[in-house]
TrEMBL record, chain A:
Keywords: Cell cycle, Cell division, Chromosome partition, Cytoplasm. Signal peptide: none annotated. InterPro entries: ScpB_csome_segregation, WH-like_DNA-bd_sf, WH_DNA-bd_sf. Gene3D superfamilies: Winged helix-like DNA-binding domain superfamily/Winged helix DNA-binding domain. Coiled coil: none annotated. This is SMC-Scp complex subunit ScpB. PANTHER family: SEGREGATION AND CONDENSATION PROTEIN B. GO terms for biological process: cell division; chromosome separation.
From TrEMBL, chain B:
This is Segregation and condensation protein A. Belongs to the ScpA family. The lineage of its organism: Bacteria, Pseudomonadati, Pseudomonadota, Betaproteobacteria, Nitrosomonadales. The gene is scpA. Pfam families: SMC_ScpA. Keywords: Cell cycle, Cell division, Chromosome partition, Cytoplasm. InterPro entries: ScpA.
C-alpha cells in the first residue's frame, strides 16, 4: 500500500475514516491511519481544513468529548427524525433533575441528590441514566456506608454535542430569584 | 379550598379587592398537580411563585397554611408520596414557631430561621432550570444524527493468497471435470427408451397396478430420465403391453400390465 504523499490524499483518508466510523475518532485513532508518519499539529490542521471543506455540505465535522465525528447539520434534524418514528421518549423530570445535579455538582452521592431535590431517589432513575451510559460510578465517599459517587461520562458529553463539561451552560445562569411559572 | 378564602384577602400583607384569577384550583385539578410535583421543595416553589411571594422574605404562616392544605389532600390520595412532604411540613412549622417566639436580646444576631430553607429552595430552583435546559439541548438519537457511511472492514473479507501454481492446478481440475462431464453424456446416450420399457414392465410385474405419478421419481431423476421414462410408457402402451386407465376426469391415472388382468 502506498503512503499518501499529498495533502488532498491525506484529507481524503481522514474523511473516509470519519465518515465510516460508528463512534467519534480521537486524534490518536486518526494518527494510526498514517502509520505514525503524521504530526499531531499537521493532523489538527488537516481536520480544520476538512471542516472548512464541508461547510457548504449536508454534514458537518464536529469535535465532541471522545473525538471528531461527522453529523447531519441541525437544519436536517427535523426531516431525518421522520425516518425513525420510534424515537426515545422524553425522560421524566425526576430523571432530568437527577442528571442536572450529577452534571453540575459531580461527583455526588445519592444522599447529595436527595438533599438537593428534597425527595428520595428512585433507583430506577439512576438505572435509566446508567443504562444510557450518561453517568457512572467513579468511586466511594469515605463516610460510613461508603456511598457510591456518581459522575457524568464522556458518552454524555458526546450525546449532547459537547467537548467538555465546561461547555455546559454555566450553573450561575440558572440561579435567579425571579423565574416565571411554566 | 375556596371556603378558606374569606372576604378580606391579604397576600404578602397587601389587601386585595378581588380574588386573583389564578388563585382558585378546582379539587380535580389538584390531583393532577400533586402528581406533577417532584417533592416538597417543588411544591413549596410552586406555592411561592403562584402566590407571588418573595422567596427572600417568605411569610411563614401563609406558606405553611397553603402547604398543609396540599399535603392534607395528598395524604388522602397517596400516603406513600406524603412521607417526604410531611417531613417538610414539620420543618415549616418549626421555622414558623421559631419566628413567632420573642427573641431575647442576647441572641439578637441569630440567623433568620428561614435562611436554610431559602438556600435549599434557590438551589433546587436552579437545578430545575438546569434540568429543563439539559432537556432542551439537542441530543444524539433525538435531534442530532450522526453520520455512519457503510464500510465493510477489510480485515473481515481479506482475500486468500493465490499463486500461479494454484491457478494451473485449478485449470487442470476444470479439464478433468470437463472430461468426466463428457463421459457422463455418453452414459446418457445409453438411457434408451427400450431400457426404460423393461424397467417399467419389471416394476409392474412386482406390483400389478401403479399410480401414474408413482412411476416417476421426480426428486431423484433428472428431466432427461423422466422424459425417456415417459416415452417408454407411451411406447409400451402403443405396443399393447400396458394399459393406462382413468376412472373420471382429473382422477388418478393407473398403469397396469396388460397380461395381469
Amino acid at each position: 500500500m502506498r503512503e499518501p504523499d499529498n495533502i488532498a490524499q491525506m484529507k481524503a483518508i481522514l474523511e473516509a475514516a470519519l465518515l465510516t466510523s460508528p463512534q467519534p475518532l480521537a486524534l490518536d485513532d486518526l494518527l494510526k491511519l498514517f502509520a505514525g508518519r503524521m504530526e499531531r499539529a499537521t493532523l489538527r490542521m488537516l481536520l480544520d481544513e476538512l471542516k472548512a471543506d464541508w461547510m457548504e455540505k449536508t454534514l458537518e465535522l464536529v469535535q465532541v468529548a471522545s473525538g471528531y465525528r461527522f453529523q447531519a447539520k441541525e437544519a436536517y434534524g427535523e426531516y431525518l427524525s421522520r425516518l425513525n418514528p420510534e424515537r426515545q421518549p422524553k425522560y421524566s423530570r425526576a430523571v432530568m433533575e437527577t442528571l442536572a445535579i450529577i452534571a453540575y455538582r459531580q461527583p455526588v452521592t445519592r444522599g447529595d441528590i436527595e438533599q438537593i431535590r428534597g425527595v428520595a431517589v428512585n433507583p430506577n432513575v439512576i438505572r435509566q441514566l446508567q443504562e444510557r451510559d450518561w453517568i457512572d460510578i467513579v468511586g466511594q465517599r469515605e463516610v460510613p456506608g461508603r456511598p457510591a459517587l456518581y459522575a457524568t461520562t464522556k458518552h454524555f458529553l458526546d450525546d449532547l454535542n459537547l467537548r467538555s463539561l465546561a461547555e455546559l451552560p454555566p450553573f450561575e445562569a440558572f440561579a435567579q430569584s425571579e423565574i416565571p411559572l411554566e | 379550598m375556596v371556603h378558606a378564602i374569606n372576604s378580606l384577602i391579604k397576600i404578602n400583607g397587601e389587601t386585595l379587592s378581588a380574588l386573583p384569577q389564578d388563585l382558585y384550583i378546582p379539587p380535580d385539578a389538584l390531583e393532577v398537580y400533586l402528581e406533577a410535583f417532584e417533592g416538597p421543595l417543588d411544591l413549596l416553589l410552586y406555592l411561592i411563585r403562584k402566590h407571588n411571594l418573595d422567596i427572600l422574605d417568605i411569610p411563614m404562616a401563609d406558606l405553611t397554611v397553603q402547604y398543609m392544605t396540599y399535603v392534607d389532600k395528598m395524604k388522602a390520595i397517596n400516603l406513600e408520596l406524603a412521607a417526604d412532604y410531611l417531613l417538610m411540613s414539620a420543618m415549616l412549622i418549626e421555622i414558623k414557631s421559631r419566628m413567632l417566639l420573642p427573641k431575647p436580646a442576647a441572641v439578637e444576631e441569630e440567623d433568620d430561621p428561614r435562611a436554610e430553607l431559602v438556600r435549599r429552595l434557590m438551589e433546587y430552583e436552579a437545578i430545575k432550570r438546569a434540568a429543563q435546559r439539559l432537556d432542551a439541548m439537542p441530543k444524539v438519537g433525538q435531534e442530532i444524527e450522526v453520520a455512519a457511511a457503510y464500510f465493510q472492514p477489510v480485515s473481515q473479507m481479506k482475500p486468500p493468497e493465490v499463486n500461479l501454481e494454484d491457478l494451473v492446478e485449478a485449470w487442470r481440475n476444470v479439464l478433468k471435470r470437463a472430461k468426466l462431464h463428457q463421459h457422463h453424456k455418453l452414459g446418457r446416450a445409453e438411457l434408451s427408451v427400450r431400457e426404460h420399457m423393461s424397467l417399467l414392465l419389471r416394476r409392474l410385474s412386482k406390483t400389478p397396478v401403479l399410480r401414474f405419478d408413482e412411476l416417476f421419481d421426480v426428486a431423484k431423476e433428472g428431466i432427461p430420465t423422466l422424459v425417456v421414462h415417459f416415452l417408454a410408457m407411451l411406447e409400451l402402451a402403443k405396443e399393447g403391453l400396458i394399459r393406462i386407465t382413468q376412472q373420471d376426469a382429473f382422477g388418478p391415472i393407473y398403469v397396469q400390465a396388460s397380461h395381469s388382468s
